[in-house]
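User: My instructor asked us to take a sequence, write out its structure as tokens, and then describe one feature of it. I'm not sure where to start. Here is the sequence I was given:
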Amino acid sequence: MAGFRSKFDTLRWRDGRLEMIDQRVLPAEILYLPFDSAMAVADGIRSMVVRGAPAIGCAAAYGIALDALRLRHQPPAEFNRELGSAFCALAASRPTAVNLFWALARMRSAWETCRNADAAQSAERLLEEAHAIFADDVAANRRMGRHGAELIKDGARVLTHCNAGALATAGHGTALGVIRSAIEGGKKVSVIADETRPFLQGARLTAWELMQDDIPVTLIADNAAGHLMSRGEIDAVIVGADRVAGNGDVANKIGTYQVAVLARRHNIPFYVAAPLSTIDGAIACGADITIEERGADEVRGHGDLHWAPAGVAVRNPVFDVTPAELVTALITEQGVMRAPDACKIKALLNESRHLK
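Assistant: Let's start with the prediction itself. The structure tokens for your sequence are:
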């Protein structure tokens, strides 16, 4: 089967500026917003115009490139000072997705290699690096998809939580990339998508994205997953990740942990698809991962509709941590790691450094 050709761009470079599809208004409207500075990109990340760990990393890289281009006619001292502020602004935009910090570290490394060049040359070098980060993400997702597709049986009904598709990456996707690759390989696969309260990434984004590719998808309420598992209607679970700790614990969208527990109870494989850039070897375990909490209005209602009583107290953690012991396998661009643990993660990271 021919490869999928996306009908949309999550983010794209057009005429010297970054454009990103506004994921807050999907699926009702397909709207691309322009960004011309690091501060604007940071606001776009913070306000959820763009979401998904790999896509956030790509957006941040382009944010640095935008400010570098904007400042390319400034004296070196001012260029360096202002660009340093851009790094700080982007780093403060969201705390949990490690790809953000990975991409900024890669951009900072590129910046260091041209510190003695003039500002215009530095700007061009940083734009080249942003383009490379974008291209590398698509390539990693493709490799990840090929590795993960081997785990998906023909005819499988696969549950996914949140959105880990092309909308969460530069293209193809992580969890949904595995499903796309399995279908490209000739397998029949259908998807069951959790709605993913409270921001409804499954209902609004995953369902829409899969329908664009004519991939069979059924939307369910988050609290229906256990019922379907108990009836033998789910064959595998595959999710993405926002950060994988050094011991294999996985931070992903809130609700992932309970899906993993249910999968273990019903002997259903629970797979995590994530690029190496999502693995944070500096974090010993999931307890050390910062969990972002967002505003109460996301739980009280959606858009202009409010269903909770005004003033009710709300907790809105947007990620949770799934212990490594519940992960059947971690799928990366380097291959499939079954039963991830600290030793295997360390060996994988060491191997990846040697391949660079």
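For the description part of your assignment, you could build on this observation: The longest helix spans residues 119-149. Try explaining in your own words what that tells you about the chain.
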